[in-house]
Amino acid sequence: MGTRGAPSRRRPAGRRLRYLPAGSFPFLLLLLLLCIQLGGGQKKKENLLAEKVEQLMEWSSRRSIFRMNGDKFRKFIKAPPRNYSMIVMFTALQPQRQCSVCRQANEEYQILANSWRYSSAFCNKLFFSMVDYDEGTDVFQQLNMNSAPTFMHFPPKGRPKRADTFDLQRIGFAAEQLAKWIADRTDVHIRVFRPPNYSGTIALALLVSLVGGLLYLRRNNLEFIYNKTGWAMVSLCIVFAMTSGQMWNHIRGPPYAHKNPHNGQVSYIHGSSQAQFVAESHIILVLNAAITMGMVLLNEAATSKGDVGKRRIICLVGLGLVVFFFSFLLSIFRSKYHGYPYSFLIK
């Protein structure tokens, strides 16, 4: 007889015992604590961001442009988190700074900010602020900024790029130009609403009244209307205004002049051929008028039949006006178009 072997002990199918390797429990506990910490940090960032946006919205409800010092600038602009764009005007509005350009730019900036504040598209994705040099000197030093006014865009993420600094010297600081620049940087389109300005209407009404009154008083003798000299003077004034760039000033709104904040030197001629100051257009107008006057005197000396000595003096005066002021005009042209090789009398 054969002997039976001892029955083998088999585990039931589908019931395999699994054991955690030794030392894995502390690892799981550490992973759990890490997840809790990350979740708490994320929640803290969300709360901080909500507080910042709430504070900015509160300031915007009071004023369309809120002023910032160094601490506010670092908290609301430089320090994360941030999901909004911030437009900042760096300026110097204190009277002792004597920055007339800053005051003019501030007026246009106020128009733009008010247009956004009262727009139906107003939201918490775009804010307008201002840093004055006397209130935030450390901010100017931190950004290595040595001129004012300057407009900068601080995006929601990352650092500002070169295009985030508004090219004020080339474009001007009109509210419409600023709105176009903001639309390019943020995709937020602002329709500029300017407050009503009745000065132009009043001036036009006064001019019409003056002309109408003159015509009424001279109604019995209107021969002056056919005066060629009078119409020639009016035409010359229009030509001088157009050739000196008055229309460009009206469209672009450039500053009258530029004052260097370091040495106080005032520049009346812009150094680039792509822009100009208002004072520069006035200088060009006077130069063109002087050259034209010289040409008129030369023509008068050549066509008149008076005394020869008197005609010679008129000719010399006219020639002097043309030569000197044309040389001055050519020197300005050389200073704007760098590399232009020609000059005459004045370099």
Could you characterize what this model shows?
The chain is of the alpha/beta class. It folds into 2 domains: 43-186, 3-Layer(aba) Sandwich (Glutaredoxin); 222-336, no CATH class. It has 11 helices and 6 strands. It has helices at residues 24-62, 70-78, 100-117, 137-142, 168-171, 175-186, 199-217, 228-243, 246-252, 278-303, 308-336; strands spanning 66-67, 85-91, 126-132, 150-154, 258-259, 266-267. The chain has a 4-stranded mixed sheet with strand order 1-3-2-4, with helices on both faces. The protein has a two-stranded antiparallel sheet with strand order 5-6. The longest helix is centred in the first third of the chain and has 39 residues, at 24-62. The radius of gyration is 36 Å and the shape is elongated. The model is unreliable at 1-6 and 11-17 (pLDDT under 50). Pathway: Protein modification; protein glycosylation. It is a multi-pass membrane protein. It comes from Cavia porcellus. Its main location: endoplasmic reticulum. The chain crosses the membrane at residues 198-217, 229-248, 282-301, 313-333.
